[in-house]
Amino acid sequence: xxxxFKVLRQYLKYxxxxxxxxxxxxxKVVGILKSADENSFSVEMANNIKVDGKKTVEIKTVDxxxxxxxxxxxxxxxx
Length: 79
Hints:
By secondary structure, the chain is mainly β. It has one domain: SH3 type barrels (Roll). It contains 1 helix and 5 strands; from the N terminus they run αβββββ. It has a 5-stranded antiparallel beta sheet. A hairpin with a 4-residue loop joins β1 (about 20-25) and β2. The protein is globular.
């Protein structure tokens, strides 16, 4: 259930769901899996930032190639 993804089919199953990415450098990113193909995938992340004393949310999409990541796992939440 929380095992790292191994094949493209797993990435496609979790499109539009929250995933945790650990890069080869050791950086940890949590975001929404937006797309995946044989060579790469993209994750949309929301960052809270302050602009002129007001909190805003900055959304950015990051593309990753499979060579630059260590693991990708689904984030399990209980509601």
